[in-house]
Amino acid sequence: MLERLLEVNNLEVSFKTYGGEVQAVRDVSFHVDKGEILAIVGESGSGKSVTVQSIMGLIPTPPGKIKNGEVLLEGQDLLKLSKRDMQKVKGSKISMVFQDPMTSLNPTMKVGKQIAESITTHQNIKGQEAKERAIDMIRRVGISNPAERYEQYPHEFSGGMRQRIMIAIALACHPKVLLADEPTTALDVTIQAQVLDLMKNLKDEMDTSIILITHDLGVVAETAERVAVMYGGMIVETAPVNELFHNPKHPYTWGLLESIPDIDAADKKRLVPIEGAPPDLFSPPKGCPFAPRCKYAMDVCVEEMPPAFSIDSGHEAKCWLNDSRSPALKELVAAGRQLS
Amino acid sequence: MYIVKRLLIMLLTIWVIASLTFLIMKFIPGDPFASDADVLPEEVLQNIRAKYNLDEPIAVQYVLYMRDLVTFDLGFSIQSETRSVNSIIADGAPASALLGLQALVIALALGLLLGIVAALNHNKVLDYASMFIAIIGISVPSFILAPLLIKYFAVEWGMLPVASWGTWQHSILPTLALAATPLAVIARFMRSSMLEVTNQNYIKTADAKGLSKTQLVIRHGIRNAILPVISFIGPLFVSLITGTFVIEKIFAIPGIGRYFVDSIFNRDYPVIMGTTIFFSVLLVVTLFIIDLSYRYIDPRIKLTSGGE
Q1: What is the pLDDT of residue B34?
Q2: Where is the protein found, in the record's own terms (chain A) (predicted)?
Q3: Does B296 touch chain A (CB under 8 A)?
Q4: What is the average pLDDT across B223-232?
Q5: CB contact under 8 A, A121 and B210
Q6: Which pLDDT score is estimated for A339?
Q7: How much is the pLDDT for B197?
Q8: Are A117 and B211 within 8 A, CB to CB?
Q9: What is the mean pLDDT of residues B4-31?
Q10: Given this model, what pLDDT does residue A332 score?
Q11: Contact (Cβ atoms closer than 8 angstroms) between residue B212 and residue A87
């Protein structure tokens, strides 16, 4: 068994708004092992970003509130740390790469300084030495002329280059966990592959674990070792990446997999959507959040939250269909049962 | 190349301002000797008019004035014949400039501070307190504030001189009275700018680096938030240092502020022209300096002669 580096248990996060309280994250638990890449997938609003931002303590409070749960980094609960102690963890043990590289760098500060700042904040390194370390990081993220690039400002970099700089900032202190919040969403497809490769290579070099948030299952297949599927503020299925693609056990995962456009398809099929809309998180349903959109939903799905059914080692799905008492799927489909 | 081009444009701007002012000034009814017309015989008036070239057609007057202006000769005041406009400006400008500079420094220092404090405590007590001060600063005119300051600080408590100009103590009350409004405007401006910056993604990046709140605000917040405020400082600076009629009148300060107003009432043509040109030169030069300084504050701005 691998060492559990980061463990999130029963995390609950909500936001107060004028319309009421949004239950953004509801009882989420997962873990990351040392040197592992865990992907969190799910549609917009499923709570992916809020989950990782809570790990980093980046949720603005108020309006946000972490109502319950713990975030254990090597056994230490980050949610219980004082602000000052948390500052020491942020950027040194856990760091983060954000979605939009165009706006995530300070436009009036040299990029080199922005990397060096991360180093001088956490390590007892100053001046020239910090600069050299920063230049080394620029080189390691694959940017040529690092010494020259150190002196430049973000507007002199392309989107892909800026994301490399963001990665350099995040990895400058050799963190144990890197949280990547849709790091390639804002980039061209060719650049996406480069940035993902870079992250994978640096992960191996630095022995860092990565939590990769994405809604791109292609990225998941390429990069991740384990996958957590989020829906309606909950993790509905967790599995090793091969298992998830070949033996998914949650109807939402089926829907996600079916909705991937197939470039090799001989006939021009229409794309397969998941019909319906995500649940209203102001007043989350008491049963399975996916039930209203689920082709296979049963009475119990609406009434009661499914527990996590263990399918295989490391594979869990929160779906009543996996209960031994549930009727066979075939029957359900044959009966054409659909819950409105 | 950029600088040369800018300098030429500045000259052109000043020429246009001077010409327009000259024309508008001549179209105002009346002349400097209107009040003397009843007392003096017609021949004398003719002579005086001739002395100031007022009997010539406007086009000729304009050419004559421009000829002198090129040599920086602003002519003599009609009201006080012994004084050249150059010497009026030279005598009055230092007091006005000192007063204006002090007011600017105070308005900037306190205004920025209030704005930052308000933004960092958004929707909390300090925010409301700062903005309350700012609203008062904007809504209470200086001719109310100045007498109030005099009444309490000078008359009732006797801490500071009532009026006049001389020692630095004399300058405290007029500086405060002059600074109040720009201070409030800067505070409100800085607050909204700072609030906008606080929501930017790069602040989140910096936060994720584990910087303390102070480092976050100083290194990443203020510098970006201050950019829009700077463009506002130029005109403010000029309007403050060229003197204000009201404050100089109330505190009996020998600045040039009163000449702006008096010269217009008296149709003192050379003084109107002189003070206006002085004001516009300062404004144009200050704007130029501000534009140059942008380059150092915001690296995204490159000064080129256009179309690069």
Answers
A1: 74
A2: Cell membrane
A3: no
A4: 85
A5: yes
A6: 36
A7: 92
A8: yes
A9: 91
A10: 58
A11: yes
Measured in degrees and rounded to the nearest 5, phi and psi for residue A83 equal: -55, -45
Is A56 within 8 Å of A94 (Cβ atoms)? yes
Identify the three-state secondary structure at position A107.
coil
CB A106 within 8 A of CB B194: no
What is the spatial distance between Cα B115 and Cα B129, in angstroms, rounded to a whole number? 11
The domains of chain B, with CATH numbers, are 92-267 (1.10.3720.10)
> Going residue by residue through chain A (340 aa), what tens digit of pLDDT does each one get?
457 888 898 999 988 888 888 888 888 999 999 889 999 998 888 888 889 999 988 888 778 888 888 898 888 888 888 888 888 888 889 999 988 888 999 998 999 999 999 998 888 888 888 999 899 989 888 888 999 999 999 999 988 889 889 999 998 888 899 999 988 888 888 888 888 888 888 888 888 999 999 888 888 888 899 999 999 889 999 999 998 888 888 888 888 888 887 777 666 677 788 888 888 888 888 888 888 888 888 888 888 888 888 888 888 888 888 887 777 665 555 555 443 3
Q: Which of B26, B31, B61, B95 is nearest to B259 (CA)?
A: B95
ipTM: 0.82
CA of B308, closest CA in chain A: separation in Å?
A: 16
8 Å CB contact of B206 and A56: no
Q: Kind and range of the H or E element at A41?
A: strand A37-41
Give contacts of B209 with chain A, Cβ < 8 Å. Answer: 90-91, 95, 117-118, 121, 169
Dihedral sign for Cα atoms in the order A139, A144, A148, A153: negative
Tokens encoding A309: 């059914």
Residues 6+ apart with CB under 8 A from B139: none
Examine residue B141 and say whether the peptide bond preceding it is cis (omega within 30 degrees of 0). Answer: no
Q: What angle do CA A189, A195, A198 make, to 5 degrees?
A: 145
List the domain boundaries for chain A.
1-93+175-279, 106-173
Average pLDDT over residues B202-218: 88
CATH topology of domain A1-93+175-279: Rossmann fold (3.40.50)
Decide: A73 and A45 in contact? Cβ < 8 Å: no
H-type helices in B79-124, by residue range? 85-120
b/e map of B90-113 (b: 16 or more CB within 10 Å)?
Answer: eebbebbbbbbebbbebbbebbbe
Cβ proximity of B250 and B164 under 8 Å:
no
- Residue contact A96–B208, C-beta within 8 A: yes
The residue type found at A295 is K
Chain A partners of B300 at a C-beta cutoff of 8 Å?
A: 107-108, 153, 155
Residues of B in contact with A114 (CB under 8 A): 205
Contacts of B223 in chain A (CB under 8 A): 108-109
Q: Of A98, A110, A153, which is closest to B204 when you measure between CB atoms? A: A98
Q: Are B248 and B96 in contact (CB under 8 A)?
A: yes
